[in-house]
């Protein structure tokens, strides 16, 4: 799910001082710098438990030199042992890394998922639906939103333009993670002329959406669980240059628009934006692009 950006090969563990009852392990890890591909992150990538608000900063070689930081290795990290816990439900003895709660001993950005292009549509759709429900996506989405909010609180963002803020946020926070949020039906692939069925949300785009919709109560992980229904209830699809807009209504009859983009190689299909739309937006989109699909009832309006 994750490719490490060669230009920012280090990660720094950061403890959030706003936590009233901090775990001593997390305090001890604060400020420690390890390579992004160090195995330690596979079990210690924050958040590491309920109430944990720790996060990670990505750093370039130049950042490490400029800040006078000394990278370490996972084997040399403090509190690097394990503890045993007994499950209250099964009585099973579980071994966990120190400072990490049960169920939190993995990195969402590194979580393995099968090559969904090798599965038939119905099975791939079920696999993605399960991943969207099991809490991993919620944690991933919440972590990005939290990091964006905390980054924006820094005074050096105050005088930057919106575009400059987006660029800097991505430079500071983007670790090239991707999450599968939907699977496109074969007939929709034909309509759009795409060659892959898996729709991905990249961290690059999630950062922008977290910034542009900061404080929006509709901007939740739950909103993305509706993405699958886009392809099953779409009432209008318009191609505009190198992207397509897909229009659909939710159960409350609210109009939404999703923006999709396929890479030039054809090997990646990304959800670039998900937002509310209006009838005026639809009309403008139809004039600006090529209509690929329009439901009959819309054509009669």
Could you explain the architecture of this structure?
Residues 10-56 form the Phage head morphogenesis domain. This is Phage head morphogenesis domain-containing protein. It comes from Candidatus Competibacter denitrificans Run_A_D11. The chain is an alpha+beta fold. The chain folds into two domains: 2-63 and 73-97, no CATH class; 116-294, no CATH class. The chain contains twelve helices and twelve strands. It has helices spanning 24-29, 41-44, 61-66, 121-133, 136-152, 162-173, 186-192, 203-212, 221-224, 227-233, 279-288, 296-299; strands spanning 10-14, 33-35, 55-59, 82-86, 93-97, 178-183, 198-202, 236-240, 243-249, 255-262, 269-276, 290-294. The strands form three sheets. Strands 6-7-11-10-9-8-12 form a seven-stranded mixed β-sheet, sandwiched between helices. A three-stranded antiparallel β-sheet has the order 2-1-3. A hairpin with a 2-residue loop joins strand 8 and strand 9 (243-249). Helix 5 packs across helix 8 and helix 6 (162-173) crosses helix 8. It starts with 9 loop residues before the first strand and ends with a helix. Residues 1-5 have low confidence and may be disordered.
Give a quick set of tags describing it:
301 residues; alpha+beta; 2 domains; seven-stranded mixed sheet; three-stranded antiparallel sheet; 12 strands; globular; Phage_head_morphogenesis_dom; Phage head morphogenesis domain-containing protein
